[in-house]
Every structure is written in structure tokens, then in C-alpha cells.
Amino acid sequence: MTSTLLQALVSGLAIGGVYALIALSFSITFTTTNSLNFGQGEFVGIGAFLGVTVLYVIATTAGEAISFSSLPPSTSNGLTYPVAAVVVTLLFGVLGILLFVLAVRPFAGKTGMNWVMSTIGFGIILQSIGLAIWGPAPVNLPSPLGDDVIRIAGTGVRPQEILILVVALALMAGLDLLMHRTRVGKGMRAVAANPQAAALMGIDVSSMMIGAFALSAALAGLAGLLAAPIASASLFLGLGIALKAFSGAIVGGLDNPRGCILGGFMLGLLESGVALWNAQWREIVIFVLIILVLAVKPNGLFGAQSLDKV
Amino acid sequence: MNNFSKARRRFLRGAVAIGATAPFVDMVRPSWAADDIKVGFNGDLSASPSAQSGRAAIVGIQAALDDLNAKGGVLGRKLTLVVRDDLSQPPKSIHNMSELIDNERVVAVFGPTNSGNALAWKHIPNRKKIPVVGCLASATDITKPTSPSADNYMFRVGSVDRFQVVALTTYARKNPTTKVIGFLTETTGYGQAGLKDLEEVAEAQGIRPAASGKFGVADTDMTSQLSKLRDAGVDTVLIWAQGTPTGQLLRSMDKIGYFPTILTSWAALNLSFVNTAGPVLAEKPIFLQTVSEDRTPHQQAFFDRMLPKLDNASSFAFAVHAYDAAQLVAIAIAQAGSTEGSGLREALENPKKPYEGIAKTYHPSFTRERHEALGPADQKWTCWRGGKLAAYTDAVVASLKPEDFKG
Questions:
Q1: How far is CA B35 from CA A68, A257, B24, in A?
Q2: pTM of the model
Q3: What does the similarity note say (chain B) (predicted)?
């Protein structure tokens, strides 16, 4: 029984790491621009395929004859996977800037929610381009650390799951430091608190917003590359993950990055916990709990308490 | 009526006629001639992992039409195939069905790839009296008539979930090492229908599962559900799910080091199963298919002909079903002497002569009551060995007799 619970805990943390990473990416744009990328799920799927493509190009350039749909484990060996991660992160940073310039900035500061439709549209365009390039079939992406199960006290975990958890925690800690200890981070927080006042203080509000979207998109692309060795790279991979991550962010408090991370992990743990009892009830239990939490704490468990006086 | 009115009516009639024909004046002549007999395919060819079986069916149907046309066609007319991809989506599949029947005027339809889509539109061919011969989707209810006495236009040359479940449950019941049975099914329509079959057949065979679990089609970690089965002492698990989630289930088994006897649906034939599970874990389950890997010379010759056109060798059975289905439709057209739907249905239900097909000799292929061309006896035990499909046998399989199969 102990090993069963421990297994559920490990599995919940592993999937929670992916949720937390994407929940954080939602929070980054929300706190700086008051808007979100509703195409984040599509970004995750494209990130996975871009990673596969980079690994494929590296392997074929080195003279290996391999199939794109099923990359052999050797393609992720050595420095190739980290190189793919850097390429995906950088390209997604650029994509995030494009998203901001084309789909968010035209509507910034205006009333209405046009940015909701434009970010959804941007995601759908991206996915359609992805379908035209790679097709709809899922593709295998080997883990750089191999696929052998590591057993600790009767509990099994795959190296890729540990890698996700470590990378996610490291990125979260790094971003936390960035936000609280650096000038850039303080500038971003100032823009989030009050863009007009931040502009008057000499902070380049536009650059901060562009930076936030670049960072958010880069995290989504990287999350896709990290999740692909477990779930297979698929253009439809991200939609379910992004929905859960968004739920985690809402529960944790969209305006609190640390709360979003906790929300993501909580959702992962809750999922694997409910599956111990009855997997078919998982979605029902999770979303009923989310509704209950929001009824009691509308800004999420760790969200800022706001009070509007009229 | 005065002359002005007559002239006006003539003018209007002429204008309508010109208007109606104008769009077709410059139209390129279609690849089929007006007197060709058109048959349709409606199924997934590109969207889901099962699309590879849809593509295999097209290859099989086209091979049959080529063979028939080489001999002069049927009723002196050539046969042509009209293909529609339903992208695995029920609304698209329903639209395709109406379009094939009403616009393309096909005389029979093959497909679809996904069971849910067949169940979504089976009322259309039944209402319009156009026979459908399934060669891919396996849900038990697809070929059931809409009411007990109604004329039924849904036929199938392919695997049937119920027959697989009966055979797998019989294996579990006859296996001396099986003490405690559990079920694991995915939460899609495919999994739910499979669970219904599993529960009904288990009851008919006097088996009570000790535990039953479910999982989502996109889940990547089923360790919680598996732990529950392990804690209940389950030593034999019957799985009903598509290829990818079955692969994920095996990976989760690997994580907790729990490997009961695994009996699963023919979705394990799909390459997506091996790609997800990996070649080593893929060797664990036993499942059934309709064309044995120990091929007859006739089947081997057809295999050699089809292989260059298939995505992979594991989708060969679908090409076989499709080839035989197309040949049976052609035989029915010849026997009926026309392509009219109800006559075609009657000819399919009352074949005058046996047909020596690729999967087997059909004698008879269908009857009014039985719209399944392949029966429980046509199930072949299968597994994966070294990344390739292989015939499976053991002492239990060798001991199974037809009277053992109940439900």
C-alpha cells in the first residue's frame, strides 16, 4: 500500500512539473500585460515537433539513415538534446515576440477581449502550418537519459520524468530570482503593478511586455520538448496539458507566479490521487474542486486580494 | 394564355436550362466514364493513428477493382472507387456518407476506419438502401439491424469486438494459471463498448472480475489504476483500448514491475502500439487478428503484391478484408444483374456460389441473419516478436475447442 501511494506521489509530481511550467508561462504574460496566450497548447505541440526536427537534422547531417517517425535512441545522445532544447527555446522566444506584435499589441489598452480571439487564432494558424509540415501522426522522441525504469523503494520512475521535474524546478527557481533580485525582474513587476507609473519611472514598458511574451512562449516550447519522450510528439499533445495547466494557474492565483507553480503541482498530484480511487471520476472531481476553491477564494488560493471601490 | 406570356415562359425555361448547364460546359471530363459503376470509401486516411489501416483498405479495394476491371468489369461496366477522408470526425463522416450516396451516386460504400463514425451514420445507408461493407471498424453493434425485422444494409468483412472478447475470455477461463481476472478499458466509445462486451461475455462464462479500471486515451501514466489491480491480486488482465494507450499501459506496468497475463484487443496490431510500448514490452500481450502470420501460398502471393503499397506489414489484414469485401460486392452486383440497392442487399444475403477469397473461402459470405463474413473461428492468435507480428501458440491455445466459446 505504501509503495502504491508513493508511486501515485511520484507520478503526480512528474506530470505536475509539466503543468507547473506551463502554468508559470501563463502567469508571466498575465502579470505584465493582463493578457494570456490562449494558443499556448498549440505552442507545446509545435515545440515537441520542432525538437524532433532538430534531432533529425543533426542525425542526418552526421550521415545517419533514420526514420523521422521513429528516431532511434542514439539521436538524443550527448549534446544533441540540449542543443535541440536551446534551439527550440530561442525560436520560441522569437515566436513569442511575433505573437505579441501581431496578435496582442494591436488590442492592448483597448476595451474588449479581442486578444482572446487573436491568440486563439494565432495558435490555430500555427497548428495548421504544423499539420501541413509534419502531418497529424504522433512521432517518437527518445529521452536523452534512456528509457530504463529507475526503482527506488518499490517505486518506478523514468529518467525523463526526473529530468522534467529537475528542469521545471530549476527554471522556476531561476525565474523567481530573476523577478525578485534583478533590475529586469523588478521592472517587469513594476509594469505588472502599474504600467503608467512604471513608464514614468523610466521603465521601457513595451520591452518588458515583449520580453514577457518571449519568455512565456519559450517555456511552452521547452515544455513540449520535455514532455514528448513520455507522451510522443504530437501536434495535439498540448491542448489537454495547457487546459490542466491553466486550471492549476487559476487555482493557485494567476497573478502569483509561485501560486501558479503550486497550483500546477497540486493538480498533478490530485489527478494521480483520484486515479487510485476511480480514474473515470478524475476530471469530475478535479473540476468540482476547482469550482469550489474559486467560489471561496475568487482570485485563487494564493492570488492577490483585490478590492474595487465604486 | 397570350403570346407574350408564352414567349416569356419559353425565354425563362431556356435561361434556366443555359444557367444549369453553363457551369459544366468547360468542365474537364471526369476520370470515370458515365456508365462506370462507382463504389465509395469513407473513413479516416490521415488524422488518427488508425489512419494507416484506412490507407491499407484503399490499397486492397483498388487491387480488387483492378483485377475485376482487367476481366472486363461487372455487367460489362468498369468499377471505379470514390474516396472520402473523414479525418476521424463523426460530423465529417456523416457528411461524406450523404455526399457519396446523393452526389456521387455510389452503389456501395466501404469503411469507415473508426467504429464511432459507423455508429453515427449507419441510419443513412439503411434509409437510402445503399449497402455498406465494413472492412476496418470492429464494434459489435455496427452490423446490428436498426429494428429486429428491418432490412439491414450494414455488412462487414473484418474483425468483430464481440468475437475477440469471447475468444480472449475463453482463453482466460481455460488457462490453469489464471486465478484472478481484471479489466482495464479506455474511456472512449471504443473502450466503453468493449467493456460492455467484456462484462456480458464474462457473465455468460461464469467469470467475475476482481477489479476494473479505466484510463483516458491521452494518459501517459496508469500506475494508479494498475496498482489497484495488483492490490486486488489480479493475475490476468483483459485490456480494451487503442494502440497508443495500450502501449502507455505497458510502460506503466514496467514502472511498477507488474506483469500479469495480458489479453488485449486487435488494436495492438497497430504500429502506434509498438512505437509507444517499444519492441520489448510489445511482446507481452496476446491478441487476435483475422489473417494469420502463417500465411497460405495464396495469402503469401497477395502479401507480396500488397506490401510495397502498405505503410507497414502489420496493416496487411485490412487490405485483405477490403479486397474480399470489394470482390463480394462485385459478385453481388453480377448476381443481382443491377446496381439497385435493395437487389444488391438481397444478393449479398443469398450468394449462389462460394467465393474463394484471400482470408478464407466464403460459403456463404452472408445470410439475412448473419452480416459478418468472418466469424469466431476466423480469429488467429497473434503477438509481437522482434518488432514483427507472429502467430502465437501455447498449450491453452492448442486446447481450445469450438464448444468452449460462449457468449
A1: 44, 69, 18
A2: 0.83
A3: Belongs to the leucine-binding protein family.
